[in-house]
Amino acid sequence: MSSLKVFTNGLLKENPTFVLVLGACPTLAVTTAAFNGIGMGAATTFVLFFSNMLVALLKNYIPDKVRIVAFIVIIATFVTIVDLVMKAFVPDIYKTLGIFIPLIVVNCIILGRAEAFAQKNDVSRAILDGLGMGIGFTLAITILASVRELLGNGTIFNIPIVSENAKTMLIFILPPGAFITYGYLIAIFNQLKAKYNF
Amino acid sequence: MEFVNIIILAIIVNNVVLAQFLGICPFLGVSNKVGTSIGMGAAVVFVMALANFVTYFIYYFVLIPLHIEFMQTISFILVIAFLVQVVEIIMKKAAPPLYQALGIYLPLITTNCAVLGIAILATQKQFNLIQSVVYGSATAVGFTLALVLMAGIREQMELTGYPKGMKGFPISLVTAGLLSLAFMGFSGLVK
User: Fold this and answer.
1) Reduced to 3 states, what is the DSSP secondary structure of residue B105?
2) How far apart are CA B129 and CA B53, in angstroms?
3) Residue B137 or B84, more confident
4) What is the model's pTM?
5) A174, B184: Cβ pair inside 8 Å?
6) How far is A48 from A70, CA to CA, in rounded Å?
7) Could you read off the pLDDT of B31-54 as tens digits, one per residue?
8) Nearest residue of B to residue A171 by CA position?
9) Residue A155 to residue A162: CA distance in whole angstroms
10) CA of B97, closest CA in chain A: separation in Å?
11) How far apart are CA A87 and CA B136, in angstroms?
12) Does the beta carbon of B34 lie under 8 angstroms from any beta carbon of chain A?
């Protein structure tokens, strides 16, 4: 696989959100507004980038039997860094994302990539994979968040799209809307994938 | 009264899966058969109550006195992973029938974000020890309820027709959405 393919793999072919359906908890929970999608995506990408890098660097030194615990410690370290940085610099987003920032540690995308990719590849490829997966996740949840924000609130990134008097469907910002929108987006993604064969 | 409030809130009003979006992976993955979802649910009740019990001591007797609250995420996830292993070993030796029934679900629980999430939420809500354990078990019962309901619906759905493009995750998610909508009817039940 060429380096470019390693990077683009996470964007479409193995998109963590639409194809692998990993990390569904933050995907559903924080996507009430498009900005939250970007914030969550950035935090996850940061952790994914550095955990993949460190796992690839240390792969020869970690005994096979304790590798999962070692990965969890590595991931938890970077999650703690993100947690403290976001608390200090973007308190508003930190407050909306709430418990889902520390929960990045149990996001299956990150442990999954460490186990399935980073520990078998060299550092540069692991970094590219982490970046690709992270950006794929960010794009996917931002799309989901934009759809929900548009249908539920009539805005995207707080920019009004429909006229102020139009009735919006509040249900799409509430929990049921998360499940339903996500379900239909996966269905649409699958159809597009079958049609254009990417 | 206070405990009744915590229990009703945790099981029905703020259902962990359908309203708080924790533990979605096992919810979508293990909810094919009613039998397996009950097994998974029982294992989660056990681990979640225990995890809340242990993390309470970690938080108030180790992290706070040492002023290292920022170590919460790391220490909690390690404790939970360790706890699941210990429970598995003890259960294998002491209660083989129970292990036969619940054993295969235990390793899955480490990656169940509901366990870590609820442990962190319990410290955020500043519950005392008993409240924390009650909160943990009630939440897990809510998790089981959602899982079993979903499994019942999915068993029926096997027999009915729906568009091919919706097969797999999409139809499960839309079903979960409708279930969540039904649960919203309970909001306002407890002040």
Assistant:
1) helix
2) 7
3) B137
4) 0.89
5) yes
6) 15
7) 778 887 888 888 888 889 999 999
8) B181
9) 7
10) 28
11) 26
12) no
Residue B18 lies in a domain: no
Contacts of B24 in chain A (CB under 8 A): 24-25, 28
**How high is the pLDDT of residue B30?**
75
Mutate to test the interface with B, among A68, A77, A83, A186 (most CBs of B within 10 A): A186
**Chain A: closest CA distance from residue B80 (Å):** 11
Task: Give the ipTM of the model, two decimals please.
Answer: 0.86
User: What is the number of domains present in chain B?
Assistant: 1
The dihedral over CA atoms of A140, A146, A147, A152, expressed in degrees to the nearest 10, equals 140
Q: Which residue has the tokens 């999409």?
A: B170
CA of A177, closest CA in chain B: separation in Å?
Answer: 7
> Is residue B13 domain-resident?
no
Cα B29 from Cα B147, distance rounded (Å): 10
Residue B121 placed within a domain: yes
Q: Which amino acid is at B47?
A: V
Closest CA to A57 of A127, A10, A152, A143: A127
List CB contacts (< 8 A) between A19 and chain B: none
- Show the domain range for B158: 25-180
Domain presence at residue B91: yes
How does pLDDT run across B52-72, given as a tens digit for each residue?
999 999 999 999 999 888 888
Minimal Cα–Cα distance from B175 to chain A, Å? 8
End-to-end CA separation in angstroms for chain A: 16
Show residues of chain B in contact with A179, CB under 8 Å: 173-174, 176-177, 180
- Among B71, B77, B176, select the one facing A179 at the smallest CB separation: B176
pLDDT at residue B29 above 80? no
- Please give the structure tokens belonging to residue B65: 């006195």
pLDDT for residue B191 = 65
DSSP code per residue over B37-75? HHHHHHHHHHHHHHHHHHHHHHIIIIITTTT-GGGHHHH
CB pairs under 8 A between A and B: 108
Q: Which residues of A touch B78 (CB under 8 A)?
A: 69, 72-73, 76
What does the mean pLDDT of chain A come to? 89
Q: Which residues contact A132 (CB under 8 A, 6 or more apart)?
A: A6, A7, A8, A9, A10, A11
